[in-house]
From TrEMBL:
Name listed for the protein in its UniProt record: PAS domain S-box-containing protein
Limits of the PAS domain: 17-63
InterPro entries given in the database record: AAA+_ATPase, AAA_lid_NorR, Homeodomain-like_sf, HTH_Fis, P-loop_NTPase, PAS, PAS-like_dom_sf, PAS_fold
Domain Sigma-54 factor interaction: from-to ranges: 141-370
Amino acid sequence: MSQYSPLFKPWLNAVGADAALAAVADWLDSAAVYALDGEGRVLFWSRSAERLLGFSSDRVLGQPGAAILPCPASEDLAERGQLDHQPAAVTRADGTPLRVRRSARGFFDARGKFLGSIGVLWPEPPDSAEPSAQVEDFHGLLTCDPAMKQAFQIVRNVAETDATVLIRGESGTGKELIARALHEESQRRQRPFLAINCAALSPSLLESELFGHVRGAFTGALKDHAGLFKRADGGTLFLDEVAELPPELQAKLLRVLQDKTFLPVGGDRPVAVDVRIVAATHRSLREETKAGRFREDLMYRLRVVPIFLPPLRARREDIKLLLGHFIERHNAQGPRRILSVAPDALRVLLDYPWPGNIRELQNVVEYAFAVGRGEVLKLEDLPPEFREQPPAPAGSPPSEPLSEAARIRAALAQSGGKVEQAARLLGISRATLWRKRKRHGL
């Protein structure tokens, strides 16, 4: 319980309890603050309650609060004494629904008679504003976007087969999560799911990691090493950034796809495996083939079933959905709770091009929780580049997909030129970012 000095009551009598309550209510500018008497009639109605619910104080003061406020009613609160952040629903003056969190405290006299209550209503974060059957949760991937839902259905269908799948999408769109979902939907779910980023290792290390090596194959090979193909036998192997696979390893991968066998480094006997390959890339393998950087026969073997994941900027409703999802996840961890998003902050978040896609949005929410305070996510809680971002003109067409060079420039700008941070935003290694910058002359 809150503590106060013996001088507090005389001070409160001097300044007036009504003035003190009004001052506190004004600070909670995103929440509705109200007071009810023992019979449930409205005694106090804050200015923020007028803004949030649309009912003027002239209309509600002295009237039964049950017609406006969510259940439980006053008589229920008289028994319970207190409510803490309970989910509820109200209807605004214009008839639109609003989901809120309600906290309330009952007051009693010396004989235990219920005298009334003070309550606060906080609007739910954007994703919870209107629950909808259109939102789909597919193995932890949330969306209300038709293109993403189509990708989910393709995953369900192809999971019934052993066809090789190629997932195409920008960094941070959830390619590995889709690959894991495919594995979980398939008959291989009881066997291993292993993943590797083909751009993260040198060609020699990548070959050893994929195919394993025998003792004495090279200096330091003191014992046999089972590669990912062997360890994933019966399961699924996810090859991320497959477009970065060196030419000499492309031939070995083709052999695995064709013959279901491979040779470990330094080995002379083929090893048979039963592994499903799911590959991913943010670049077009057709374009890489035309440029002579990728084998055409391997390209056709990998993209038996292509799946395209749209970027976050093309899924405007998903921005609000995922924003609310990440906020709720952090709310559960504490100590800070965000119960609403300021309109100017939400507008900037919706207009941002999100070069790092969902991963970047998740990082931005984490940043806001770390640097901000209070129950409202404000514009100043966002990273500096968001406050410098000019809002898109009203009615402007959706942004065109950014080129790889543009995504790199945006990530470097967001990270203030810090290469390590930019690489994390793009979902690639520092070495891969260096190669890409060199390719584009950045």
